[in-house]
Amino acid sequence: MNSSDIIIKPIITEKSTLLQESQRRYVFEVNRYSTKLEIKKAVEAAFNVKVIKVNTINAKGKTKRYGPRPTALKTLKKAIVQLAPGETITIFEGV
Description:
The strands form two sheets. Strands 1-2-6-3 form a four-stranded antiparallel β-sheet. The chain has helices at 3-6, 14-23, 36-47; strands at 7-10, 25-30, 51-59, 63-66, 69-72, 76-83. Strand 4 and strand 5 (69-72) form a beta hairpin. By secondary structure, it is an alpha+beta fold.
């Protein structure tokens, strides 16, 4: 797998923005079957940064009702990546 197969998209919310500003942590939606080591290598290759730590979260898709039918939303895996001091990812900086 290359980095584009592992990293699906960045997750930009209020909480992820606060993590980014205070603790140098960035949040990505990643492939459900990727490991922490694969995520670390993919982020380092894609953004040319040094990753210290990777935490992952498996978020099960919720069940919603659309009229008479219950429908399941998609299950996703999030990765919270902490960078080394002095490192930043410019895609989040609004450049």
